[in-house]
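ok so for the tutorial part 2 we go from a plain amino acid sequence to predicted structure tokens. step 1 is just haveing the sequence, like this:
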Amino acid sequence: MLKVMLLNDGEGRAASLRQTLAAAGVRVVAEAAPGMDLAAAIEDAAPDVVLIDSDAPGRDTLEYVCVASEHSDRPVVMFTGDGTRAAIREALQAGVAAYVVGDVPAARIESLLTVAIERFAVEKSRREALREAKLRLADRQWVEKAKGILMQTRSISEDEAHRLLRERAMQAQKRLGEVAREVVEFSQWLGPG
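step 2 — the prediction. this is what the tokens look like for a chain of 193 residues:
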């Protein structure tokens, strides 16, 4: 049984949404209002999904809920009556996993929430892969700079400079990029003032 936390932002249709969720076999484990400490509420309730019920989602609410749910790894699904492109774009840019305009029959709720959960997992995986790729690129740049410094200051070959960095990384039990960054920063500190 899926567990959801319901956030009612404004007039909304919270009562009818609660009934639809119950008919679909989805359990509402907590309800919240804008302005609460949503990160703590999400952590306490441990829902599978955070649902926002809103006539017209406020940008502050979107950002706050999405930041709070991102830190707790919960997808956000918005049920709303606002089908304007601008509202949809803002919600998606804020990180909403699914934006549902109008009423949804109980028979479709569980599959809709499951798709949102899976989409959130895919997006999270992509963000992590991008973060890792950026980290590797930054590490390579630090390694190249550090090798250049070692080659110049010690009059050694590129291979020898790389070997020294690798040995230091193993001794310090750090990533090669971290050690390279330390070498570059230290050389800048020692450089001409």
